[in-house]
Amino acid sequence: MHLVLVVVVKNLNVVAESNMIIVLKRIPEDTKKRDIVDYLEIVLKGKLFQKSGVIEHIQILTHENYRTKKIDFYGIVNIDSEDAANRVIKKFNRKAFNGKNIAISEYHDRSWHNDARIGSFEFNGGLKSKRKIDRRRSTLKTVQGSAVGFSSHESFHRKL
Fold first, then answer.
1. Region for 129 from its dihedrals, namely left if φ exceeds 0, alpha if ψ lies in -120 to 50, beta otherwise
2. Which of 33, 50, 109, 126 has its CA 20 to 30 A from that of 3?
3. For residue 92, which of 160, 38, 50 has the smallest C-alpha distance?
4. Element (H or E) spanning 59, and its range?
5. Of 159, 158, 123, 156, whose CA–CA distance to 44 is shortest?
6. 41 in a domain, yes or no?
7. Are 147 and 58 in contact (CB under 8 A)?
8. Is residue 127, in this structure, part of any structural domain at all?
9. 1 in a domain, yes or no?
10. Between residues 20 and 128, the one the model is more confident about
């Protein structure tokens, strides 16, 4: 009976593998979507016992700090394999991209729906949250965003 349970759990884990969104932080301002594809495809190909990944969507966001007028560029990349995305993060985080060291991390959706502090007051005796303000940068605004969606790696190359 235990053997059957292990097989079922293992099969559920294979099915549960999903897409992952990664963020390329503070990329150079002259970065094109083609540059991001060329940079990531080395790791996305996979090896003998690694699952290959495919880029499904790329978006380049421009954020401006309206107090300092500093503009930062971010690349948002949706990869179809969580394993491949983790390989990209491990291999390229804090490495040079177009002559500039960038950080790469997993994108986490922050909204009040997934805030652990909401509704937790019953369990902690009504204690108030120690966090005084939202940790997001309030001076940041999206100036422009451009996106390219595609279904396979080959069709993306044709669109560029």
1. beta
2. 50
3. 38
4. strand 55-65
5. 156
6. yes
7. yes
8. no
9. no
10. 20
Quick check: 20 and 82 in contact, CB under 8 A?
yes
Please give the residue that has the higher pLDDT: either 49 or 16: 49
Per-residue confidence (pLDDT) for residue 144, from 0 to 100: 61
- What tokens were used for 72? 């930062």
Q: How far apart are CA 74 and CA 68, in angstroms?
A: 18
Q: Which domain holds residue 68?
A: 17-109+139-159
Instruction: Report the number of distinct structural domains present in the chain.
Output: 1
Q: Is residue 59 part of a domain?
A: yes
CATH of the domain at 100: 3.30.70.330
Helix (H) or strand (E) holding 148: strand 140-149
> Residues of 64-100 as b/e, b for ≥16 C-beta within 10 angstroms?
beeeeeeeebbbbbbbbbbebbbbbbeebeeeebeee
Structure confidence by residue, pLDDT tens digits, 104-157: 999 987 776 666 666 655 555 555 556 666 666 666 666 665 555 544 444 444
Single-letter code of the amino acid located at 88: V
Cα–Cα distance measured from residue 146 to residue 160, given in angstroms and rounded to the nearest whole number: 13
Distance (Å) of CA 28 to CA 5, 18, 70, 72, 84: 50, 29, 13, 8, 24
Confidence (pLDDT) at 154: 47
